[in-house]
Amino acid sequence: MTEYGIRRLAMGVSALCLAGAALVVVAAWRFDVAPPAPPAPAASPKAPPPRQATAAPELTRAILANDVFGLTPLPDQQPKAKQPLKPAEIDMELAGTVIAADGRHAAAFLRDKGNKSQKAYAVGATVKDARIKSIGKNFVILERQGREEILTMKP
């Protein structure tokens, strides 16, 4: 089938879909009837009792007391207090960073203090004896010997 034939077929299918949608709208409009009138209330000797307002707070307290939704962390899952990262002990200085929304395309420009050469590094790259764990705005987090260290940009 040629490109012209495919276009012609697509236009025909589109026209059929549009005609079908118009038919549905017309049928719905044509057979639109008023909703039935509500039945007349029957004479009842007694009205239903009003709802108790105290049931909801009691139920809420019961749910929270039993931790139904798992809001309270378990003792072994308590959040640990974050200790501030110590400055990196590496003979490199941070010249600049380029960050990305997803973090995978971030880059850090590190300058060797000894020979003043500068190179771009990505997350996961090895610098001297450290590995770049993450790159942020004006800082790089390095992992050395299982510990995290931070390398910040000097003004």
Describe the structure.
The chain is an alpha+beta fold. The protein has a domain at 86-152: Roll (SH3 type barrels). Helix content is 26%, strand content 26%. The chain has helices at 3-30, 55-66; strands spanning 86-87, 92-98, 107-112, 118-122, 126-127, 130-136, 139-144, 147-152. A hairpin with a 2-residue loop joins strand 6 (130-136) and strand 7. The longest helix has 28 residues, at 3-30. Keywords: Cell inner membrane, Cell membrane, Membrane, Protein transport, Transmembrane, Transmembrane helix, Transport.
Task: List key phrases describing it.
155 residues, single chain, 26% strand, alpha+beta, 3-stranded antiparallel sheet, 2 helices, 5-stranded mixed sheet, SH3 type barrels, flat
Topology:
Layout: H1 3-30, H2 55-66, E1 86-87, E2 92-98, E3 107-112, E4 118-122, E5 126-127, E6 130-136, E7 139-144, E8 147-152
Parallel strand pairs: 1-8
Antiparallel strand pairs: 2-3, 3-4, 5-6, 6-7, 7-8
Question: Quick one: how many beta strands?
Answer: 8
CATH 2nd-level architecture of the domain at 86-152: Roll
CATH class category of the domain at 86-152: Mainly Beta
Order of helices and strands: HHEEEEEEEE
Mean pLDDT: 81
End-to-end gap? 66 Å
Which structural class should the secondary elements be placed in?
alpha+beta
